[in-house]
Amino acid sequence: MALKFAFPPSVDAGTRLLILGSLPGDASIRQGEYYAHRGNAFWHLVGDMLEEDLRGQPYAVRLKRLRARGVGLWDVMESAQRPGSLDSSIRAAELRDLRLFIQHLPALRAVAFNGRTAATHGRRQLGDSPDLALIDLPSSSGAYASLPREKKAQVWRTLRGWIV
């Protein structure tokens, strides 16, 4: 089984809110873009949260708009073995050192976990960070279809308190 690797972070010194996923899916890896699968609601949900239409923008503009609003993206895993794109298929995950990473983000106030897998691994590392809000989000993945998009959006909108 091939090893799959995550992307570099999309952050800067002004990042106030860091959204962590688990590991990019196959469509994202092929395109070299976070949340590239057309069935993934991430860009819809985060655009709604920011009150901006990001889905119609080129990828580089999306990332630039997130950074301008103090939002960063990264994943809790550096690499893993995974056939397909489902988190339930992840094996032999190499986790990133989140505690070390956040030390380089002086404006960081909150970390949001996009889905259960990201929350499980991220909270293990960051669970005792008293100056940091940790927020569990319903997964933006189309595979998590038991919660309608509008219900997901209600939870994602709670992130507005950490954006600029």
State the gist of this model.
The protein has 164 residues and is an alpha/beta fold. It has helices at 26-31, 42-50, 59-68, 98-102, 116-126, 149-156, and strands at residues 3-5, 17-21, 71-75, 77-81, 91-95, 110-114, 133-137.
Provide structural commentary.
With 164 residues, this protein is α/β, with parallel strands linked by helices. It has six helices and seven strands. The protein has helices at residues 26-31, 42-50, 59-68, 98-102, 116-126, 149-156, and strands at residues 3-5, 17-21, 71-75, 77-81, 91-95, 110-114, 133-137. The strands form two sheets. Strands 3-2-6-7 form a four-stranded parallel β-sheet, with helices on both faces. Helix 2 packs across helix 6 (149-156).
Secondary structure: elements and pairs:
Layout: E1 3-5, E2 17-21, H1 26-31, H2 42-50, H3 59-68, E3 71-75, E4 77-81, E5 91-95, H4 98-102, E6 110-114, H5 116-126, E7 133-137, H6 149-156
Parallel strand pairs: 2-3, 2-6, 6-7
Antiparallel strand pairs: 1-4, 4-5
Helix pairs in contact: 2-6
